[in-house]
Design a protein that fits this description.
Keywords: Acyltransferase, Transferase. The chain is of the alpha/beta class. The protein has one domain: 3-Layer(aba) Sandwich (Glycerol-3-phosphate (1)-acyltransferase), CATH 3.40.1130. It contains 8 helices and 9 strands. α2 packs across α4 and α6 packs across α7.
């Protein structure tokens, strides 16, 4: 490991970075004029708590804006070095981090997926909302099975969430991550909850997965429209859909 990487991975530096990120995000939250859709979202979703709040990758900087101060929340954060300062930032924002992630074609135990699933189950049982990305790493805007499995075994509904600001930086990353800028307008959009029966068969699980995917696409499209923008991540979604069609045509 190089000197720069060792310095940035040190606990003191990561604590500082996490605090700076959290302070900046609080500033962005205070200086943007947010609208919520639907307007009675908290009244409706509050009755369903604790819920599983679903987001697309790339929304991790902004998603906590949708949390009410009284809501206890835990968020799934990867075990990577970058995940460490994200976890620290979340702590300063009032969100507890659960470390671990799923695995695509790799040993899920190595990535901490099994332990993370158990920790999320305990959080929901204890009344904490759980926040997690629906898509798996490197495949943006395609819902994976993990969030649907958590909903099935916990009995808690999945609520898709999108948070967008009119002034922002859109990164040219695989997940089209965005981070808001101060002094603009913002939109928080919550979609329809998806319940997954405990006895759901494979076909029902796939239907639930597709429903979450559709709802997440819908809330993002609506949130961007409310601030007068187009969703930059929609292109990633379209490219994956085209790839899937191409694979099907060659099957």
């Amino acid at each position: 490991m190089g000197l720069v990487k060792r310095i940035t991975r040190s606990r003191a530096v990561q604590e500082t970075l996490g605090l700076l990120v959290a302070s900046y995000l609080k500033f962005v939250h205070r200086t943007n004029r947010f609208v919520m859709e639907p307007a009675d979202a908290y009244d409706r979703i509050g009755l369903e708590m604790p819920v599983i709040a679903a987001m697309w990758h790339g929304q991790h900087f902004m998603i906590h804006f949708a949390k009410r101060p009284q809501d206890r929340a835990a968020s799934l954060v990867s075990r990577s070095g970058d995940g460490e300062f994200n976890a620290i930032a979340l702590r300063h924002l009032g969100v507890r981090a659960i470390r671990g992630s799923g695995a695509r074609g790799r040993d899920i135990r190595k990535k901490g997926g099994v332990q993370a699933m158990r920790a999320m189950m305990r959080a929901l049982s204890d009344g904490e909302m759980v926040v997690m990305t629906a898509d798996i790493p490197k495949i943006a805007r395609v819902c994976g099975e993990g969030i649907v499995t958590l909903a099935q075994i916990s009995g808690r509904p999945i609520v898709p969430v999108a948070v967008v600001t009119s002034r922002r930086i859109d990164f040219d990353s695989w997940d089209k991550a965005s981070i808001g800028l101060p002094f603009g307008r913002g939109a928080i959009v919550l979609g329809e909850p998806t319940l997954v029966p405990r006895d759901a068969d494979p076909q029902a699980l796939e239907a639930a997965r597709e429903a979450v995917e559709r709802e997440l696409d819908a809330v993002h499209e609506r949130a961007y429209a409310l601030v007068g923008s187009r969703d930059p991540g929609a292109r990633a979604r379209k490219s994956h859909a085209n790839a899937a069609l191409a694979r099907g045509s060659h099957a």
